[in-house]
Structure formats: structure tokens, C-alpha cells
Specification:
Structural class: alpha/beta
Largest sheet: 7 strands, mixed
Shape: globular
Helix content: 25-40%
Distance between the termini: 25 Å
Radius of gyration: 23 Å
Length: about 450
Amino acid sequence: MMDEKYDVIVLGTGLKECILSAVMCQAEGKKVLHLDRNNYYGGASASLTPLKNVYEHFGKTCKDLEEFGRGRDWNVDLIPKFLMANGRLMKLLNRTGVERYLDLKSVDSNYVYKAGRIHKIPATEDEALASGLMGLFEKRRFKQFLSYVDQYEVDREKTHKNYDCTKKTMKECYDLFGLDDNTAGYTGHGLALYLDDNYIGNPCLETILRVKLYGQSLAINRNSPYTYPLYGLGELAQGFARLSAIYGGTYMLNTPCEIIRENGKAVKVKAGDKTFHCDMVICDPSYAPDFVRKSEKVVVAICILDHPIADTKDVASVQIIIPPKQARPYKKDYDEGEKRKDIYVTCVGSAHMVTPKGFYLATVTTVVEFGDHEKELELGIKLLGNIKEKFVKVYDLYEPTDDGTSSQVFISKSYDATSNFETTYEDALEIYRRATGKGEFDFSKVSNSSAEEVL
């Protein structure tokens, strides 16, 4: 028999919602009811299977699919992201024990686009010396910069070398080490993984920490800083959902949901023909459309290939970053101005159990800046070569209009266009802070031994 009253009701089984559901159950000891209108886990961060469901999702006629192998061998991510091997989400997977439910495999390589061709982002000193990304003297200056970043520790002032990274801008930092604009672009977009160049005028501390994270993650995986779960990103949400259920969370899928407020505060949720009372609601933007606003649009092209991407040494998985400055020589293609946001290309295949053997899933994505959104993807699409099938969709991104503390409705942001999950973790953590009044995820009540016994 289901309880009528819950501490927390979570709507939507996206990754952020599943993280919060698990943390509320495991770390906070809350009674949680978790609902989703869909009949699958993952929400906007789902991996769709079988292949015919992908056609239905994108509104395309489902043709004869025999040429693509067995339909259930396809696991197609709706959002293209990788995990940083030493990132905060990876650490949360480890701390909560969810990592045990997943098979994680490193991504083979990472490239950046420059002057009409792609270059491997160096993973070793030998690769750095052979790289065409910069000249010999620039390599020496860049090595000095990386040495400074590697030694830098926020709490150890002597590692700062009398340089205040909380006040000096990143432009001033590049100038200090004598790095040219090309190297700055490679650093900001290829290593710090910024979407645009707005960071240049900000204090350089964040960029230094981002580059440091890249290096730490690269040290774990060796060939690239990225990790990816077998069977697709939807496994992440399902892993946290499983943890929530183990600690008492109740799940109901395929259930229409409606938040009911009294005097501006959420007091219950109508789920199908049942009504459940609660102290707070956590949900994705689609469950509270009157309390969110549009922030920007993202266009995603998911492409089926029967070959690896050219000039990547035929690796099974890869990311290619096209910084906006590298797209600007093609600005004649953009009648409305210059491209200012990165274009991301990712590719995974049967090595990560998301396609049958002989096939690859390549995704090209960017923030929409102009009217012809497919034109904005064209530079990335050209890198893919022959495409067997293509699915294109433009998504509106939403953010909450208030912080939820008065209404007790805590709404997550849509998944942004960044290529990794660091901002996903930050949004989930920020909701946790507002909902509990705590700073970081608090696992003080959960001993490692007790977690191991339950898991």
C-alpha cells in the first residue's frame, strides 16, 4: 500500500531528478515518491531503444530498419555528453555507490578543429611535440603555463607565485605567459571546455581549475579526459533511481502528474487518479511550465554512420570541438552575424554498446544563434562523411523563474549545450542547497560499511 504523505515528491526521471531522489533517500533519510509521465527512465537525458522508438521520438517515418541490425542493439542518447573522469559527477557516482551499477569505459580521443582540419588534443609529451596546434616556441610557453596550472592549489599560496587569480583576468594570464590567440582558443575551448569566449574577461581562477580538472581526468584515462557508460547515458539516471529505490524510494512511471498549490505553496501532487501530499516537489521544467522561462535554444543532429569519423585514426569513440573563431572564416554562411558558440561533435559505437557492430552514432550540437539552425551545424556535419540516417531537433532550454524556497517547488534547468556533466552536477547541487539549507551533498549519516551492505 502506497503512503499518502511523502517528504519529497520528484517529477521526472532525468539525471538531475534521479540524483536528488537518491540523495534525499540515502543521505537525508526522506520518504520519496518519484513519478514520471513517460514509460521509460531518463526524461530529457534518456537513451532511446529500440531504434524504431528513435524514429517515433523525432517524428520520422519508420522505414525498413533491417539494414541497421537488431533494433534493441541501439541506445540513442537524446543529449550528447561525456563524463569528466575526475569530475564531480564521477565522484558522486563513487560516493553513493551508483558506480557499481554501471560499466564505464573511457572515450578514445579528443580533437579540436583548426584551420580546416582536426587536430588531436595532445595526451602525452610526445604528442604535444608533434602536434600542429602550435609552433615550437609557443609550445615552450604553453608548457610553462601548464606547469603553473599543474602546481596551482587554491589553499597553498606559495603555488600562486604572487599572482592573484581571483583578480587577474584570463586575458591577463594569457599575456603573462605570452600565449597567442590560437593557443588561448585551444586552451579555453579544448581544455577548459568553455562554450564561448566570455570567460576571457573574467578572473582566471575558474579557467585554471577547469584546465586542472582536464589534466587530472586525462591522467586517469590517458587518451582522453572522458568516460562514458556502456548502453548509453540513460544508465546514469537508472543507476541513481535504483539507489533511491533501495533506500525506500517509491517509483511510478507512465503516470500523468499535476502539482497542486495552496496559497502559492506546493502541498500535493495529483498522479493519475490518486493524490499524494508532500512537503516539497522537485521537478524538471516540463512539470511546471508556468514557472519557467526560455533561456536559449539548442540544435542537435543525431547521425547514424557505417564508418568511423575520418582523420581520427579510426577510433571507436571521439569528441571534436569546433571553437567559434574557427567557424568565423565561414561567416559568409551566416547571414545574421558571426558564430559565437562552440560546435560539438561526438561519436560512439559498438565498443560502448550503443550500436550494432559496424555502426556509429555521431552527434553534432550547438546553441542556436541564427535563423537557419541546420546551417549552424554544417561545419560539424561535413566532418562526418557519408550519413546513413539523420535526426534533427531544436530544443528550447528553460530555467526556473524563482528559487523555489517560497513555493517549495524546486525546478531544475534544462540540460545545456556543454559537452560534459559538470553543470548538470552543479544544478542538482544548487537545488539540494535550496531544499535542505546545506552546502554540499551531506553523506555524514551514511557510513561506507552500511552503504556496502545495502548495495
